Structure formats: C-alpha cells, structure tokens
Amino acid sequence: MRLRGKKSKAAETIKDVTRTIRENKLKSRSSVSSWLFLVLLYSSSVLLVFLANKLQSEYVYQGGSSASAFNRTFADRSMEHIKQLSSIGVRMIGSDQNERLARDYLVRSLLEIRAKANGSVLVEVATQRTSGRFDTDFLGGLKNVYSNVTNVLCRISPREGSKSRSHALLLNSHFDTSIGTRGAGDDLSQVGVMLALAELFVTGKQHMSHALILLFNGAEESNWLAAHGFISNNSPITYVTPGEEAGNFPNWADSVKAVVNLEAIGSGGRELLTRTTSKSSSLVEAYKLATAYPRGNVVADEIFRSKIFPGETDLSVFRDFGRIPGMDIIFVENGYGYHAAEDRLDRLPPPSPPRE
Ligand SMILES: [Zn+2]
C-alpha cells in the first residue's frame, strides 16, 4: 500500500510536471503570437502612414512657370526672409546673432511691411524682453528659469469693429536655433511664411473681423521660454510704433483665443497638422475649411502622447499656461537635418505655399 501510494504519488507528480510544461509551452506560444501580432500591426501602420504621406506628397507645389503670380510672389518673399536670417548664422539664445541681429532684422522687416498697409488695418510692431519661471513634466520633469529672452510681435487688426482687438488669433514661430545649425528649416521656413503672410494681410483686400498676432519668439530651443514669457504676460511689451497703440487692449496675450504653432522637425514636403489641443473638433473643422490642401495625421499626435519621441513644442506651453487651444503645423520631411548642420539653406526645397 505504501509502495503503491508512493508510485501513484510519483506518477501524479510526473503528470503535474508534464501538464505544467505543456501549459508553459502554450503560454509561450501565445506570448510569441501576441508579440508577432504587435510587430505586424506596428509594421503595417508604419507602412500605411508612409504610403499616405507619399501619396499626399504628390500634390506638393514645386513653383516654376506653372505657379500663379501670387504663389511666386509669396514664395519669393518667404525665401528672401529665410536667406537674410540664415545669413546671420547660428542664433542660439543669448547670442548677439539671436538677441540683436535677428531681432533687428524682424523689426525692420515688419516696419517695412507696416509702411505698405492699406487704411483698413492697424499694424502695431512691438518687442518684449521677458523673464520668468515654470515647471514642465518633459523628460520626467524640468524646472525652467529664464531672464530677458526676446520676442518680436506684430498685431494686425481691423480699424472697424468693437471686438477687433479683443479676439485674436495667434501665429507663432521661433527664430532661435539649437547648437551648430542655422535652422533654415527649423524654424526659419515658418518665420519666412509668417512675414510673407503679414505682408499679405496688410496689403490685401481680404476682410478681417478679428486681430492676428504674429509672435516671432527668440527662445524655443531651450524649452519654450519665450512662448511662456508671452503667454504668461509677466513682462510688458515695448511698442516700436508709438502713437498707434490700441489703448484698450494693451495686454496682447489676454486677447488670444486660439493659436497656430508653425514648426519644423525637418525641412521639406508639405506641412502636416500633427495635433490639436482643443477638446472639440472645431479647430480641425476650421483648418479643413480654410486650407486648400488640408493634411493631417493622428499618428503624430499618438507619438507625442506616447512620449516615444522626446520632443515638445510651444503649443503645450500655450495650452498649459494660457489655457489656449491650438494646433501644431509642422514640416516633417528630410528629418535627417533636424537640429544638425545640414539644416541649411541649400538643402531647403523651394517654398511651397499652395494657397490662392
Ligand atoms: Zn523648432
């Protein structure tokens, strides 16, 4: 009985071990299939995004004789500003190139644009030296303290209308660079577009109901300092155009209702709407309506949220410290030159704003 008992116990133990091995094999097989499924899902998503981008890029405006006069002029003006600013050299925060030369070029250009304004709009040009501090959760948590970073501002508003200056759309780009690059793509390409847009708005015949504020910020690469300085309203702005200030609305930041952040993590292709910080779809709808060739992709937003890509933009600062909804519109192609010496003028494709 005892021997038999021992035998049957041993047999049961062998059975248990065999069962466990079989179960482990099954688990391991199912774990392998889960991984395989995830890899396949990821690869097919990447492939789909790549193909979608390729197909959409077919519509890139290339300039040349087929381009309309308007597009040629807009493109030439944008490119001229990019050339001039790029010739200043690397523009790191605190450098003379950034704090004086680039700032002075922008102010000069905006004053020249202002001189062309038709009578229906008020054009104000201002600068800001701003200081402050703030915390972000970027890379596990960063404390930022800054002093005297530079902003150049232009507000274009209709002379008529009670709400013309109390409701403004903010357009933002940055003219500073990271180490060792002239930043022709990041972010001069967008600075050039904004300057050309300013000229279009002050000389065009289009009707404006609300103000447009153009913020050329001089400290994005060192963790979005200048954007924070503007939106937290912690330093006064200095008008370059005295006598024209809109006395009722001296705090420009308070009037901002939405922001379009123009960025680049590459230098070419078509601009891509990568994310919005609005809780509703209203901004996406407005973008779709106002854009001749809208182009957006939720994958970019997912990448930002997952924190796989260690990057952030001024848009988060406007959201977190100004409670302002907005969208990131970014150049993403030719990313190999991003934050590198290769981000230079001769690698920048012809400007391509296909808007009529
Ligand atoms: Zn940038």
What does it look like?
The chain starts with a helix and ends in a 25-residue tail after the last strand. It folds into two domains: 1-58; 65-347, Aminopeptidase. The relative contact order is 0.15. It has 356 residues and is of the alpha/beta class. The radius of gyration is 27 Å and the shape is elongated. Helix 2 (69-87) packs across helix 4 (184-203) and helix 3 (96-115) packs parallel to helix 4. It has helices spanning 2-57, 69-87, 96-115, 184-203, 225-231, 282-290, 298-306, 314-322; strands at residues 121-136, 142-158, 168-174, 211-217, 238-239, 256-264, 272-276, 326-331. It has an eight-stranded mixed β-sheet with strand order 5-1-2-4-3-6-8-7, sandwiched between helices. Zinc ion is lined by residues 174, 186-187, 220, 263-264.
What would you say about this model in short?
The protein is an alpha/beta fold and 356 residues long. The chain has helices at residues 2-57, 69-87, 96-115, 184-203, 225-231, 282-290, 298-306, 314-322, and strands at residues 121-136, 142-158, 168-174, 211-217, 238-239, 256-264, 272-276, 326-331. The protein has an eight-stranded mixed β-sheet, sandwiched between helices.
Layout of helices and strands, plus pairs?
Layout: H1 2-57, H2 69-87, H3 96-115, E1 121-136, E2 142-158, E3 168-174, H4 184-203, E4 211-217, H5 225-231, E5 238-239, E6 256-264, E7 272-276, H6 282-290, H7 298-306, H8 314-322, E8 326-331
Parallel strand pairs: 3-4, 3-6, 6-8
Antiparallel strand pairs: 1-2, 1-5, 2-4, 7-8
Bound molecules: zinc ion.
